[in-house]
Design a protein that fits this description.
four-stranded mixed sheet; 171 residues; 6 strands; single chain; alpha/beta; two-stranded parallel ribbon; Rossmann fold; globular; 7 helices; 37% helix
């Protein structure tokens, strides 16, 4: 919502989550702030992203996947949001120069997401190229390119956690 407020008249935002109560709360907050450039949709992005993006009026410039459910158990990993179908949908609809920002407070999840995008030649990890000065020794971005922290990020850091970030560009 901070980004939507900063970008009134220049950008639109779409939030997708599987939890409808979270999106109901977010919609109320957006209405209270008179934000007309942010909308929310209840959906399982892993399954529905291709259909959503096929109708999105665009242009699509940035996709952010921020601290998704980690699904730690091996039998539940198939539920992680970043899977081949999601990456394929982004390859299909994200134009050249479009970006994908990944962030998690769980290193294993962040590595898994990063690996999914590293496997495709349609994406390049930006900090491999020109953001190296902004990364730690393992290639994780030190700061969010969004310029604003999420609630989960604030909570994790306040409790001694760490945030793992990657930024990709569609070639």
């Amino acid at each position: 919502m901070v980004l939507a407020k900063r970008s009134l008249g220049s950008s639109n935002f779409l939030g997708i989550d599987i939890r409808d109560k979270l999106l109901e709360r977010s919609t109320i907050w957006a209405e209270e702030l008179n934000l007309t450039n942010i909308h929310f949709m209840v959906a399982n992005a892993t399954i529905a992203l291709d259909a959503i993006l096929s109708k999105y009026p665009g242009p699509l410039r940035l996709v952010s996947i921020l601290c998704p459910d980690p699904h730690f158990k091996q039998r539940h990993r198939k539920r992680r949001i970043v899977q081949k179908a999601l990456v394929d949908a982004l390859i299909k609809y994200l134009p050249s120069g479009g970006q994908v920002f990944l962030q998690s407070d769980i290193e294993e999840v962040a590595r898994d997401m990063r690996d999914q995008f590293d496997e495709h030649t349609a994406f390049t990890r930006l900090h491999k190229l020109d953001l190296a000065a902004h990364c730690d020794s393992e290639g994780w971005l030190l700061q969010s390119p969004l310029g604003v922290s999420t609630e989960r990020e604030i909570h994790a850091v306040a409790n001694g956690g760490r945030i793992y970030r990657s930024l990709f560009e569609r070639i």
